[in-house]
Every structure is written in structure tokens, then in C-alpha cells.
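Write out the 3D structure for:
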Amino acid sequence: MIERCRRLVAAPRFDAAILLVIVANAAVLGAETYPGAVDAIGPLLRTLNDVFLGIFVVELLLRIVASVEPGGLRPTVRRFARNPWNLFDLVVVVASFLPGLRENATLLRLLRLARIVRVVRFLPDLQVIFGAVLRSLPGVASLAVMTALLIYVYGMVGWVIFHQHDPEQFGTVGSAMITMFVLLTLENLPDYIAAGRDVSDWTLLFYLSYVLVASFLVFNLFIGIVIGSMEEARERDREEKRIRDRAAAAATANREDDLIVAVEDKIEELTSTLEDLRRELRVRLAADLAADRGGSDRGS
């Protein structure tokens, strides 16, 4: 029974079927936003939502059974919680049955919407992107603090310059910060520059420096953080895939699987060695160029 559940939840067809149910659930939720559809087939839409919930309950039970270990409850919970998406599914499904939430239409819709997020579980590339977003949060948070400080400084400077000439946009430091935040998107920048030049041509320096520092630099740093996190997430995904392949090869008596894993490990080792040689070659070339420049300077 347990082995059958494990084979079932590990089958690609099972994931594809649940993915289709999630897409259908999303379509029903979208249909509920149209008054005409609710008036015409409102009871059917509610019934379909209950059917989808029942399917998700069955899916969750299958995953729980597939996680059962001979050692008892603790090993079972540990295996089930090894995948964070299992915990997310458990919270979403169980919360749908709580009495206080089922009577609240807004919270119930939010819970139904949370089911749609589960689509990430069944798309590996989307999981990599999701993992990259989570990994980038510390760097993005630091960048957000720096951006807020920059907006505050430029907001204060803008208030000093423009609070008498443009009280609507720069009358207080709060409104000035909102104005500078909107300018991060470069919206209406020519209008602000034109209005500023009516006060003084030096205000052009204020706006140009803000655009160069806040808009271009901040967004490029943000892109760099996300790209770096994406590379880390992809590398972790590749490492986890190699670990799963090794475990699968070790669990079978097929020598071809062992040979494939050995070849992949050898390719990875050769790639790492090649990268080390490239770095060493760059260092030596830089040292030789520096020595040649030093010799030519002494000769002259």
C-alpha cells in the first residue's frame, strides 16, 4: 500500500493531473469574478470548488501515506516535512476546513487563491525562479534600506529647493519622498526638469544626479542581486539532481545507471579543473604583463 502510494505520487502523470486540476481551479476562481457567470452557474462554480478541494485532500492523504516510515510518527513527519511544499499544502488544505474561515468569504477566496500558488510545485524551472527570489531577499532588503535612505536624502534636498515653488510635490518631506519614489520610474521626469529650471538651472544637477544614482544604479544592483541568486539556485538544483541520481543508481542493480552517474561526476570534475586552470592562467598572464610593464619603465 505504502509503496504503491510512493510510486503514484512520484509518477509524472500524477503531477500532470494535479497541475490540470490547479489550472481548472484557477479558471473557476476567475469565472467567479464575473457577475453574469455567477448569476448563471453560481451553484455549479461552488460545487466545482468543493470538488477541487476534495481532490486536493485526496492528494494530501496520498502524500502523507507515501511518507510513512516503519519507525513510527517521528520519522514519518520528518520525511513528510522534508519537502516544504508538503507543509504548504497541509496548511492550505487544513485551513479550508476551519469554521471561522469558511464563513468569511474574503478569507475563503484568499485560501482558494493560495491553492493556485501550488502550481510552482509541479514546474521545476518555476521552482528555480522561486528559490532565486527567496535567496535574493536578504540582498534586496539591504538594497531597499539603501534606496529608502537615498530617497530620504534627496527628498530633504528637494524640500529645501522646491518647497516654496512647488508645495504640492515638495511641501513636506513626506510628499517630497513620494515624488522622488515616483521618479525612480522616470515618470514625468522632463516635466520636473522643466519646472526646476524655472527656479534655477542648477536644479538640473539635482535631477540628473538622482536619476544616475537612484534609478540606474539601484535597478542595476537589483538585477545583479537577482541574477546572482538565480545562478546559486540553479547550481543548488543541479546538485540536488545529482544527489537524487546517485541515490537512484545505488538503489538499483542496473550497472548502466551507475555508469551514467560516474560519467556525470567525471565531467563535473573535469569542468571544475578546467575553470581552475583558466583562473590560474589569467593570474599568470596578469603577472607577466605587470612584469613586462615594469621592465619597460625601468629601461626607459
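The chain has a mean pLDDT of 82.
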